Amino acid sequence: MTAGSISGRDRDALLRVDGLAKEFDVSPPLLNRVFEGAGRVMLKAVDGVSFTIPRGRTFGLVGESGCGKSTVARLVVGLYGPTRGRIEFEGVDLATLKTRAEIEPVRRRWQMIFQDPYASLNPRWRVEDIIAEPIRAHHLARGQTAIATRVGHLLTQVGLSPADGTKFPHEFSGGQRQRISIARALASQPDFLVCDEPTSALDVSVQAQILNLMKELQRSLGLTYLFISHDLAVVYHISDFVGVMYLGRLVEWSDARTLFTTPRHPYTRMLLDAIPDLEMTGRARTPVAGEVPSPISPPSGCHFHPRCPYANDRCRREAPLPIRTGATEVACHGVEEERIPAGARPTLGRSPGRSPGRSPGRSQGSPAA
Ligand SMILES: Nc1ncnc2c1ncn2[C@@H]1O[C@H](COP(=O)(O)OP(=O)(O)O)[C@@H](O)[C@H]1O
Ligand code: SF4
Ligand SMILES: [Mg+2]
Questions:
Q1: Same structural domain for residues 61 and 199?
Q2: Helices (H) then strands (E): counts for the chain
Q3: Å from CA of 152 to ligand 1 middle
Q4: Conformational region of residue 17, where left means phi above 0, alpha means psi within -120 to 50, and beta covers everything else
Q5: Quick one: pLDDT band at residue 351, thresholds 50, 70, 90?
Q6: How many CB atoms lie within 10 A of CB 218?
Q7: Which atom of ligand 1 is nearest to the CA of 230?
């Protein structure tokens, strides 16, 4: 069973990922292996992840640091080749695209936005040249005037001014730099944006502005997002569907409302219980306990068992397969065996539909921060 059946019917799918896996060879150098008799060491960063993203919707991928989220992002945009599994964009298996002529038109249709906009913007280039580069590379406008007009339009679209084009990235705040990254990503007229922690380096008030901008752009341009964050509150704000990742595997996925109101997997519950109670309902915040183990030697059976209060012998022995329960798919023996009752969690302290952007700790501030 895959998340595809939850997150959209296949005919609506822009992206379909099936059984995606990525192993990194982290073996010691050959000489050490020969002299110390050590074998190869493989790190399973992503271990059989499946999901579908319908056109025009947002799939949020959440989990603690080290769970494999960025590796999924890099696999999806082709920065890494998968060890196993399949990625389809509009029904086309990307592995079947071999020549530059086949790859380029598809490649143009997705872009990636990273956590650190400063690192991804060339500090020696003026903003207008940074944004014009994909326009020139993909021949999307011809002539200086047409390109300058397009760059000015893109800057306006992300809440900056065309006059900002003559400045350099260091002349902007963190939030403004992320707006520039978004303008550059939009320059090649993509359908699909893979956003890897795009707001994690920003202050909370600026985070809300960037998330709102992304939602506006999604509405006006019909964009589809894979949105990655370690922060469940941020993911809730922007996502239609959410997948929770733990040590390379998707452990629960559902539509955002269901996942936040009736989380089933003990890991999802742990993440939710750690969100601060911004509306001061009196709910106790329970900090996340323990750490993500190394994916080089993950725990047997269910990877989460050393941290799970519901773990039993079967959990330690056997990896759980996803089961469907209501609108959710969840991989947990405790849920399957009905040892973990549905809905048994404290209130989140933020009613569904209320966003981090509208809660007291996430004020709106000025539009172009
Ligand atoms: N290029 C790489 N080579 C070796 N290990 C890697 C590489 N990229 C990521 N990893 C490892 O894969 C695991 C998942 O990493 P990552 O996808 O960055 O997780 P996340 O984005 O959820 O923090 C981590 O243990 C990380 O150290
Ligand atoms: S499978 Fe077992 S250890 Fe894993 S989350 Fe479910 S109850 Fe906990
Ligand atoms: Mg990451």
A1: yes
A2: 14, 12
A3: 37
A4: beta
A5: very low
A6: 18
A7: 22
Is 203 found in the same domain as 260? yes
Residues 80-125: pLDDT tens digits?
999 999 999 999 999 998 898 888 888 889 999 998 877 889 999 9
Are 95 and 219 within one domain? yes
Domain count, the chain: 2
Ligand 1 shell residues, CB under 6 Å: 24, 26, 43, 45, 63, 65-71, 295
- The rounded Å distance from CA 333 to ligand 2 centre is 6
What single string gives the DSSP state of each residue in 214-236?
Answer: HHHHHHHHT-EEEEEES-HHHHH
Domain that holds residue 184: 122-189
Which pLDDT tens digit goes with each residue over 175-192?
999 999 999 999 999 999
Q: What is the pLDDT of residue 353?
A: 35
CA-CA distance, 362 to 231, in Å (whole number)?
14
Identify the pLDDT of residue 265: 96
Asked if residue 325 is part of any domain, the answer here is: no
- The mean pLDDT of the chain is 87
Kindly report the CATH number assigned to the domain that includes residue 93: 3.40.50.300
